[in-house]
Write a structure and sequence with these properties.
mainly alpha; 6 helices; elongated; disordered C terminus
Length: about 240
């Protein structure tokens, strides 16, 4: 006589997979890809260091990095191309993905907003290249220091960048410490990035000189931020 099948307990739902940044529950293959994309972007975002190896004719102390891909510069295709590739890497690594079931907790909303802000930052960076400075004002006194279109795209890029930082830091705190690197170091990186960005505006008010130093420090900090996000993807998440 056959025994009746043993009663089964309630099914245990499989944990949802992480998309990429704060607000997800586990690490998925897509998260791994996003990690490497953001790490590559962190490195390429500081490709300005090539100016010390290539004959750019610009003084890093007194020039904007965007002068490297100004329309009249000999290496504008190289540096502009690097900028576009970097932006595409950032967008590909940051674009939100809806987890199975589509559910979201409040922290996910902050994280999703931060990720879309990072995509907007990438899009504005592409705009920087498509609407470049006409010439390099640090070496050409006749060149305008403020190109309205280029200055506009740069302002949008900074606004989106700082928005992404703020939103993702809030998301990491709402997660109760599940993303300790962002929670611990994010506010410091955000504060330092704001200070260095403000220190670059001298030429916009007719006071050029030495603005290249804080701007390059700012770019390093953005690279650190992207690396922090990449590290958050590789961290071991905790299930609820």
């Amino acid at each position: 006589m056959r025994r009746p099948p043993a009663a089964r307990g309630p099914a245990t739902a499989a944990p949802t997979c992480a998309g990429a940044l704060p607000g997800r529950r586990a690490v998925s293959p897509r998260s791994g890809r996003s990690t490497w994309l953001l790490l590559a972007a962190a490195v390429l975002y500081n490709a300005w260091i090539l100016e010390f190896l290539l004959p750019t004719g610009l003084d890093a102390r007194h020039s904007y990095v965007s002068e490297l891909f100004a329309a009249d510069q000999r290496l504008h295709v190289l540096f502009g191309g690097i900028e576009i590739v970097t932006a595409l890497l950032v967008a590909a690594g940051a674009i939100p993905r809806v987890p199975p079931g589509g559910g979201r907790v409040p922290a996910d909303r902050w994280a999703t907003g931060g990720r879309w802000a990072l995509v907007a930052f990438a899009a504005s960076s592409v705009g920087d290249v498509l609407l470049p400075m006409r010439c390099a004002p640090s070496v050409n006194r006749a060149c305008e220091a403020v190109n309205p279109w280029h200055t506009g795209t740069s302002a949008l890029a900074h606004a989106a960048l700082f928005a992404s930082m703020a939103l993702l830091i809030v998301a990491s705190r709402a997660q109760g410490g599940r993303w300790p690197l962002i929670r611990r170091w994010g506010p410091w990186v955000l504060g330092a990035a704001l200070v260095t960005a403000l220190a670059t505006v001298g030429p916009l008010f007719g006071r050029p000189g030495w603005h290249g130093v804080p701007q390059r420090a700012h770019l390093v900090l953005v690279g650190v931020w992207l690396a922090l996000l990449a590290a958050a993807l590789r961290g071991r998440p905790h299930h609820r």
